[in-house]
């Protein structure tokens, strides 16, 4: 709802078509579960400070999210029903993370050795974090279409603007994917067909989702909303539905079915 900022701080689909999202409906930022078919909502976190940017693991068994409930800010994991919350890693400056296709690794952006956000990876069951890359200012990680690489936005020192690149989960060199028209602020996602990187643009009236082809070329407008800003979006696992968070300053979660 418009007074609850539903989805403005993260939306993620389960494999069976439910939507996990962040909302302030309970007073704090908390994680909720929406059963799309039944239209029912369940609050999964409560009385635990701020919880946001949820992502459902590839196997659908767990939800990873960011929280400041512990002694240090970091990435947490809980069961799909909200039980057994466990902090996996303390991650100052962390705001985004993603998974490998096999669900064994988390890649996330957090403070690196140079005082800038760097790319790290961590076993999904917890363990010792390892730096994937800390060459540049690196943020907004998302999984590549095959789940074997981390796609992210980075900025080189000295200017030149933002670039979308990717690096294998196993480590390696950065390969450039596309150059966005500006530094993207919320999130990036690959389109379901794996041909373009999608992002939000709120700069020219109503917020829209645009796509950047990975083969080069100009950005293309994907949605045609006639009002409101856009805060977040995520495709269902089968690529047929798109959940978006829209509103003036706060937001509603809106489902677009049979999306192509």
Structure in words:
By secondary structure, the chain is mostly beta strands. The chain has one domain (11-256): Neuraminidase. It has no helices and 23 strands. It has strands at 11-13, 19-23, 30-35, 40-43, 51-56, 62-67, 74-79, 86-90, 96-99, 105-111, 117-123, 130-133, 137-143, 149-155, 162-168, 175-178, 188-190, 196-201, 208-213, 220-221, 229-235, 242-247, 252-256. The strands form six sheets. A four-stranded antiparallel sheet has the order 1-2-3-4, with no helix packed on it. A four-stranded antiparallel sheet has the order 5-6-7-8, with no helix packed on it. A four-stranded antiparallel sheet has the order 9-10-11-12, with no helix packed on it. Strand 18 and strand 19 (208-213) form a beta hairpin. The two termini are 26 Å apart. The model has no long low-confidence stretch (mean pLDDT 91).
- Low-confidence segments, given as residue ranges, are none
Q: What is the number of helical segments per DSSP (H or I, 4+ residues)?
A: 0
Helix and strand composition category: mainly beta
Average pLDDT figure: 91
Provide the gyration radius in Å.
Answer: 17 Å
Q: What sequence of helices (H) and strands (E) makes up the elements?
A: EEEEEEEEEEEEEEEEEEEEEEE
State the end-to-end CA separation. Answer: 26 Å
In total, how many domains does the architecture comprise? 1
Tell how many strands the DSSP assignment holds.
23
CATH class, named Mainly Beta
SSE layout and pairing:
Elements: E1 11-13, E2 19-23, E3 30-35, E4 40-43, E5 51-56, E6 62-67, E7 74-79, E8 86-90, E9 96-99, E10 105-111, E11 117-123, E12 130-133, E13 137-143, E14 149-155, E15 162-168, E16 175-178, E17 188-190, E18 196-201, E19 208-213, E20 220-221, E21 229-235, E22 242-247, E23 252-256
Antiparallel strand pairs: 1-2, 2-3, 3-4, 5-6, 6-7, 7-8, 9-10, 10-11, 11-12, 13-14, 14-15, 15-16, 17-18, 18-19, 19-20, 21-22, 22-23
């Amino acid at each position: 709802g418009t007074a609850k900022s539903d989805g403005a701080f993260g939306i993620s689909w389960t494999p069976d078509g439910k939507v996990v999202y962040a909302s302030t409906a309970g007073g704090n930022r908390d994680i909720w579960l929406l059963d799309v078919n039944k239209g029912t909502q369940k609050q999964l976190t409560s009385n635990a400070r701020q919880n946001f940017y949820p992502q459902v693991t590839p196997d659908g068994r767990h939800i990873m999210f960011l929280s400041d409930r512990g002694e240090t800010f970091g990435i947490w994991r809980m069961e799909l029903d909200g039980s057994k919350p466990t902090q996996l890693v303390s991650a100052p400056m962390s705001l985004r993370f993603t998974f490998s296709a096999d669900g064994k690794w988390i890649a996330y952006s957090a403070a690196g050795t140079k005082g800038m956000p760097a790319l790290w990876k961590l076993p999904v069951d917890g363990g010792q974090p390892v730096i994937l890359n800390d060459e540049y200012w690196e943020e907004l990680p998302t999984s590549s279409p095959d789940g074997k690489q981390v796609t992210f936005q980075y900025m080189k020192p000295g200017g030149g603007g933002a670039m979308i690149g990717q690096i294998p989960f196993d480590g390696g060199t950065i390969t450039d994917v596309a150059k966005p028209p500006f530094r993207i602020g919320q999130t990036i996602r690959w389109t379901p067909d794996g041909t373009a990187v999608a992002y939000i643009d709120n700069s020219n009236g109503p917020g829209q989702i645009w796509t950047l082809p990975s083969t080069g070329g100009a950005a293309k407008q994907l949605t045609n909303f006639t009002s409101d800003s856009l805060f977040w979006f995520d495709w269902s696992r089968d690529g047929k539905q798109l959940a978006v968070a829209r509103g003036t300053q706060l937001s509603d979660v809106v489902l677009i079915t049979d999306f192509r």
